[in-house]
Structure formats: C-alpha cells, structure tokens
Design brief:
By secondary structure, the protein is of the alpha/beta class. The protein is 44% helix and 18% strand. The structure holds beta-D-glucopyranuronic acid.
C-alpha cells in the first residue's frame, strides 16, 4: 500500500469507518467515554446526544456510549485517549480538563459562583462560549457544558467547620486549585482516580473526599463515610468534547448535526440533573449519612480568601467576566 493510502486506511480504522451498504449503516462510529454509570444525568445526556446524532445524520454517524468507566475509571486517562484519538468523544469534569487546557482551572477557584443560575448565565454568555471554543488550543473540540452541581466535603469524621479538615486524608479531584485549597484548609490531600476512591476510603487510606450528591451516591462513597457537609466550595461544570482531528475530518453537514445534537441535550441534562440532585441527597440521608447544610458560608469563604486572591490572578479576565454575571445582592 502506498504511504498516503496506508495513512488514510489507518485513519479510517481509528474513526471506525465501516463503509455503509445501506442508508441505515453508519459510515462513522464514534466512541464516547463516560465515567458515571447508566442512569446518571450526564450519562443520560450522552445517550440522548447519541440518539440525536444518529437521527440528524440519517444513521450516517453512530455514537457508542461506554458508561461506568468501561474505557477507564480515571478521567485523566480518558482525556489523554481523546487527545490521541483512541477515544473520540468524552464527558468529563472541567476539573479534570484543567491540566490539559489551563483556562479550565478557573473553575477550581473556591466560591467562584454564587449559584447554579450564576454559573449558567456565565457559561451561556460569550466568555463561557469562548472557553468552549478555546478547547481547540489543546487538540479538542468543545461540544457543550453540562451541570455538575456543587462539590462539598464528606468524611468518616465530622467536618462542622473548615478547621475540622485539618489532618484528614481527603481525595480531591485533580484540579490544581482545588488541591491547593484543600491543602490550605489543612487536609492531607490525595489526588487519585475517581474509580479508586471507594476502596481507598474503605481500607482507611482516605478519610473522605469531595463531590456533589449524585456522585456521592452512585460512587457508593456514601456507604463508607458518615458526614456530608454541604459547604459547596466549587461548581465544576461538566464538559462534552471530542478529538479535534476527528472533528476536522467531518463534513459541514455532519458538524452541524453533531453541534445541534449537543446543544439540544443541555436542557435535557439540566432537568435530569436537578431532579437527581434532590433524589441523591434524600437517598444518602435515608442511608444514614449525616448531612449538614451550610447556609452561611462566610467561615469557609474567609478561610480560602487568601488562596483565592493569589490563585485567581492568572484568570483575572475570566473572573471579571464571571463577576459581571453575579446577581446583585
Ligand atoms: C464527578 C464528575 C466526574 C469526575 C468526578 C471526580 O462528574 O466527571 O470524574 O466527579 O471527582 O462529579 O473525579
């Protein structure tokens, strides 16, 4: 085989091109990685995205969703695989994307958003959309944001105040600023793949971790911790994105179909998220977790203010854009 032909052939294989015989046979099969199990709000959105892509391309493109960390239980590995094109599409946390696309680190800043509405107003505005486009600087094509709620600490030991974190061994998502934040609060932080946290808490390697109620439930971490303190230190939006080279090879019509499909899943995902957030919290309470709400977050905010001031500097323009959407008090 001539070199160019061979290159084309290999590319066709990576893309999963399977020469369609009829209109119903997909010409392109794209693998989508999802760490969460079936039925989790982002997973439901992935499935809906796959259904719409199939519909809008008349069966020309098929998206196969691999949920439950089947392709990897570590989002860092998933992102690396998307980068090289071995996985075509993934849904991950912006926290995990930061080390690959530094602008995403901004979301690790504690108490950056006042509320869910504040976050969405920013994400859907021009600066939030530009962040999506700027994923291409890292070899990715950004498809859409999804909701990932707010993250809070949970542990085997009580966390009534920020001081209670001192000395506790806490797994923090691999977002550099979040890791520094937990360090600044005195926790002994561990950056570990999501899929390994349950075992680590169970065997005492960790005391706890931090996450939103849906993840606390579906990861089963609630079975091995006792206290969930809803300090809501960060909102890390979820991201649906794909390999840029794979995107660039698509026809204009295929790109349009994929973009529309992604856009249309946003309202769907947000509804599923809102419902599951409540359901998950109720389930962990029923299971005996002591949930403490923190309506006044000022002690937590004060404890991380020096860190915020230093760490926000490289992201000043984005923080300013986010501030512009802050609801007036
Ligand atoms: C969950 C995110 C997931 C992350 C996980 C984590 O949905 O993408 O992998 O947190 O903490 O909330 O690693």
């Amino acid at each position: 085989m001539k070199k160019t032909l061979r290159v084309l052939f290999v590319f066709a294989l990576t893309l999963g091109l399977v020469g369609g015989l009829s209109a119903a046979d997909p010409k392109i099969i794209l693998k989508l990685a999802e760490i969460h199990p079936q039925g989790y709000p982002t997973e439901l959105a992935d499935e809906e995205f796959a259904r719409l892509v199939n519909l809008y391309t008349n069966g020309e493109i098929r998206v196969d969703v691999f949920p439950g960390g089947q392709l990897s239980g570590d989002e860092k590995v998933i992102i690396e695989q998307v980068k090289v094109g071995a996985i075509h599409i993934a849904r991950v946390s912006s926290g995990a994307l930061g080390p690959f696309n530094p602008q995403m680190n901004v979301f690790g800043l504690p108490f950056l958003f006042d509320s869910k509405t504040h976050m969405w107003d920013f994400l859907q505005g021009p600066a939030g959309q530009k962040m999506m486009t700027d994923l291409n600087k890292s070899g990715f094509y950004g498809l859409t944001w999804y909701d990932g709620g707010a993250r809070s600490f949970y542990s085997k030991n009580p966390i009534a105040t920020p001081e209670d974190l001192k000395g506790q061994k806490i797994r923090v998502i691999g977002s550099p600023i979040l890791l520094k934040m937990a360090d600044a609060l005195g926790a002994s932080t561990v950056n570990m793949a999501y899929g390994q946290v349950f075992g680590a808490i169970q065997t005492g390697v960790l005391d706890g971790a931090e996450n939103n109620p849906p993840s606390l439930l579906t990861s089963n971490h609630y079975q091995v911790v006792k206290y969930y303190t809803m300090n809501e230190h960060s909102r890390l939006p979820e991201v649906l994105f794909m390999n840029l080279k794979v995107w660039n090879k698509l026809t204009a019509a295929q790109k349009q179909a994929i973009s529309s499909a992604a856009q249309q899943t946003v309202a769907f995902q947000r509804r599923a998220w809102d419902a599951f957030e409540v359901e998950a919290l109720n389930k962990v309470i029923e299971a005996g977790i002591i949930v403490t709400e923190v309506p006044d977050k000022s002690a937590w905010q004060a404890a991380v203010k020096p860190l915020f001031d230093v760490e926000s500097k490289p992201y000043a323009a984005t923080v300013k854009a986010i501030d512009a959407y802050r609801p007036k008090k």
